[in-house]
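Recap for those who missed Tuesday's class. We walked through two folding examples back to back. For each one, the amino acid string is listed first and its predicted structure tokens come directly after. Nothing is annotated here on purpose, so try labeling regions yourself before you check the end of the notes.
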Amino acid sequence: MNNPLQDVKVGDLLPELTLPAINRTTLALFGCASGDLNPIHIDIDFARKAGMPDVFAHGMLGMAWLGRLLSNWAPQSRLRSFGVRFQGITHLGNVITCRGRVTEIAEVNGERCARVEVATVNQYGQVKIAGDALVAIG
């Protein structure tokens, strides 16, 4: 069977994934689905008491979107590792674009793998989450 990932090279960009603007409904649905009902993400009064102007997105929501970016590019079964660093708050109204770029091709545990740098960026160019993944391509 033909493997479309066999021709991956350093510098290749993953197809971008742009999500609708963050809204309260998305936060409530993600909170219920994930079990993360921290009120800072769904209760404006709580968020304001904590010193925030309003609720904001769960960090794991952004990571989930990066997971979707990766699994749109390669089958989930090829994902060998995936980690992120939360670098900024994703506020209501932010339009998030998930991006990925192949930074290395290497043999890892006997498999040909691509290291992919990933990030979520809002409409103002601010990086909210950055990380990398290792994807088997051979």
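Example two. Treat it independently of the first, because the proteins are unrelated.
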Amino acid sequence: MAVVSRGFGGRREPTEKPLPPGQFLTEDFPVLSAGPTPNVDESRWEFSIHTETGEAHRWDWAALQAMDAEDVSTDIHCVTRWSKLGTGWRGVPLDAFFADVETEDDFVMAHSYGGYTTNLPLDDLLDGKAWLAYEFEGEPLAPVHGGPVRLLVPHLYFWKSAKWIRSLVTQADDVPGFWEQNGYHAYGDPWLEQRYS
């Protein structure tokens, strides 16, 4: 069952910046979730990357905070048709996590606390395209928006920016995640309006 906050409905407002097709501008930050919000305390949070060799690379909250973080200003676009422009995030680029990870796989499955999954090409997480974000607009990321840490992949529809991120598992094939198994597009480019399969 989806949970929707106020601000979910809206109308297209005039904007100087073009929006992807079919999107409307919102000033709110609507919430859409597939289930209840997990309560993940920072002291229990851990992120891991698992490769085809069975090797696991792990980081806890202290390790995340010790890494070089970036401030990211970006637009976000939800498959449910809202767009929010110029959002401010702070997080660690995925490139830093993959620096010592060796894999021949071309895809990953993102796993979240609470059981949510989504599939992504590995190339869409590297070269400055994605972050593990833990702040939004200068404040700790609220649980309802994916805190303590969410994946941020702003060039794709926002369901690909998995909330409550727990791990990435590399895959040779593009196996669909939760929403993709339920009819959402395997890739999700908002500029191509890749909403559904």
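Answers for example two:
The chain is about 10% helix and 35% strand.
The two ends are 20 Å apart (CA to CA).
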